[in-house]
C-alpha cells in the first residue's frame, strides 16, 4: 500500500465505511445507493465528514453517505488516480466483484470443471450433463465443489470409473471386493463416506436415466442396498430375500435338495441373496407360467387355493433377491405374470419389471377394468404426479384411469379373479 493510502486505515471510521461501500456496490453492481452511518461514533463521523467536505453536524443529521457523493469527492483529492472500486480494493486488500460478476465467474469456473471431467471421462457424459443441470438433489455435490474442487474431481473420476466397471447383468460382486478392485481400498465405497455417497448418487442418476428408478433418491439403508444390488453390487447378502413356492433349482452339484424338498412338501421358502448367488438355474416345478404378486396376504391366499402353482411374493418393491430370482426364470424362458397394487407406487413397481423383462412379462389383472373393480376410498391425488414417469405403454390405460378417479385400487379386491386365472 502506498503511504498516502495509510490514512484510510489509520483514520477512524474509514475501514468500517469502505466495508459498507463494498457490500452496497456488490449488491447493486454499480457505484450507487447509500450506506447508513447509525453505528458510527462521533469520532468516526468527524473523520468521514472531513473527507466529504461537509460539517460533522450535517453528516450526523443525514446519518448516511451516498456512494456517488464519495466518488465525486474522491476526484477532488490527491487520491483521484484511483477509481472508487480501485480505492476500496487497495484499502481492503481484496478484489471486489459485484454479485453478478461473481456469479458469472463462478459459472465460468464450473463449466471449466465439467469440461475437464468430460475430457477425462467422456463415457460418463450422462452424469456430467445431469450435474450441469444442478437438480436440487445435487446441491450437496456442488457444496463439495466449493470446498475443494480438485479433490472432488479426483473422487468423481474414481466413481465414473467404477460405474464403467459394474458387473455384467446377472452377475454380482460384494461391494468391498469391488472397491478393492477399483481403488485398492475395500472401504472406499462405504455409503457413509463421500466416495460411497457419490457412487450411490451416480447409480441413482443412471437408473433414472434408464427409467429403472422412480425418481426419488434412496434414503434408507434398505433403499441404498436395493440400488447397489440392482447394479450387481452387494453390501449384505442376507438382508434381501424373496418368498416363493413351487420352484426347483440347480447348483454346481446338481439338483438342490432344499428346493427339491420344498416342492415335495409344498413348503414356502424365504430365499436370501446369499443362497440365490450359489445357484446356476431356477425353474418352475410345474409348467412354464410364473405367478408374481406384490402383497404377502394375497400371495398366501393364492398358495392356499392353487396348491401346485409356482408363486412369488415380492413384498412390495423388488429387492435384489427378487431381481435375481426373476433373472434366473427369464433365462429359462419362463412367462412372468405380475400383479401389483393399482396405485402410483404399484404401477411404478410394475413399470420397472416391464422395462427390465420386456416381452417376458405380462401385467396380470392390472388393466383399467380390474382397477375399477378393486377401487378403494383412499385418495391418491397428491401422488398422481408419480405416474408421469411411467415408461411401459401397457400401463397407459390404467394410469389414465387412476388420474380420472384419484383413488387407489388394491389386489385384495381381485383375489377371486387371480385364483380363477391361475386355475385356467
UniProtKB/TrEMBL annotation:
One Pfam assignment: DUF3323
InterPro entries: CHP02679, CHP02679_N, DUF2399
Signal peptide per UniProt: none
Residues annotated as domain DUF2399: 270-422
Domain of life: Bacteria
Residue ranges of domain Conserved hypothetical protein CHP02679 N terminus in the record: 32-247
Name the UniProt record assigns to this protein: TIGR02679 family protein
Amino acid at each position: 500500500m502506498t503511504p498516502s493510502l495509510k490514512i484510510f486505515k489509520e483514520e477512524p471510521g474509514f475501514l468500517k465505511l469502505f466495508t459498507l461501500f463494498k457490500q452496497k456496490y456488490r449488491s447493486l453492481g454499480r457505484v450507487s445507493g447509500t450506506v447508513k452511518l447509525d453505528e458510527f461514533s462521533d469520532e468516526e463521523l468527524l473523520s468521514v465528514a472531513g473527507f466529504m467536505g461537509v460539517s460533522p453536524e450535517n453528516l450526523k443529521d443525514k446519518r448516511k453517505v451516498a456512494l456517488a457523493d464519495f466518488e465525486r469527492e474522491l476526484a477532488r483529492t490527491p487520491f483521484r488516480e484511483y477509481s472508487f472500486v480501485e480505492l476500496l480494493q487497495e484499502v481492503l486488500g481484496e478484489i471486489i466483484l459485484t454479485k453478478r460478476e461473481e456469479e458469472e465467474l463462478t459459472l465460468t469456473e464450473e463449466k471449466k470443471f465439467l469440461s475437464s471431467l468430460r475430457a477425462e471421462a467422456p463415457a460418463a457424459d450422462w452424469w456430467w450433463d445431469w450435474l450441469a443441470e444442478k437438480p436440487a438433489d445435487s446441491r450437496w455435490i456442488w457444496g463439495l465443489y466449493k470446498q475443494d474442487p480438485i479433490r472432488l474431481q479426483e473422487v468423481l473420476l474414481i466413481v465414473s470409473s467404477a460405474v464403467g466397471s459394474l458387473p455384467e447383468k446377472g452377475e454380482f460382486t460384494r461391494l468391498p471386493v469391488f472397491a478393492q478392485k477399483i481403488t485398492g481400498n475395500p472401504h472406499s465405497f462405504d455409503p457413509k463416506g463421500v466416495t460411497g455417497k457419490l457412487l450411490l448418487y451416480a447409480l441413482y442418476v443412471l437408473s433414472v436415466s434408464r427409467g429403472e428408478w422412480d425418481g426419488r433418491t434412496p434414503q434408507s439403508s434398505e433403499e441404498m442396498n436395493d440400488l447397489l444390488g440392482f447394479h450387481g453390487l452387494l453390501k449384505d447378502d442376507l438382508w434381501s430375500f424373496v418368498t416363493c413356492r413351487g420352484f426347483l433349482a440347480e447348483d454346481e452339484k446338481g439338483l438342490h435338495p432344499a428346493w427339491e424338498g420344498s416342492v415335495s412338501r409344498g413348503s414356502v421358502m424365504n430365499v436370501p441373496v446369499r443362497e440365490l448367488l450359489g445357484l446356476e438355474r431356477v425353474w418352475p416345478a410345474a409348467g412354464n407360467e410364473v405367478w408374481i404378486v406384490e402383497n404377502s396376504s394375497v400371495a398366501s391366499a393364492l398358495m392356499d387355493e392353487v396348491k401346485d402353482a409356482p408363486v412369488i411374493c415380492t413384498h412390495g418393491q423388488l429387492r435384489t433377491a427378487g431381481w435375481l430370482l426373476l433373472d434366473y426364470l427369464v433365462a429359462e424362458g419362463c412367462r412372468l405374470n405380475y400383479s401389483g397394487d393399482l396405485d402410483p407406487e404399484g404401477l411404478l413397481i410394475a413399470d420397472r419389471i416391464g422395462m427390465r423383462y420386456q416381452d417376458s412379462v405380462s401385467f396380470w389383472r392390472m388393466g383399467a377394468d380390474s382397477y375399477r373393480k378393486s377401487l378403494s376410498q383412499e385418495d391418491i391425488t397428491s401422488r398422481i404426479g408419480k405416474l408421469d414417469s411411467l415408461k411401459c405403454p401397457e400401463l397407459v390405460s390404467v394410469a389414465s384411469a387412476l388420474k380420472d378417479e384419484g383413488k387407489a385400487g388394491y389386489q385384495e379386491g381381485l383375489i377371486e379373479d387371480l385364483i380363477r386365472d391361475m386355475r385356467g
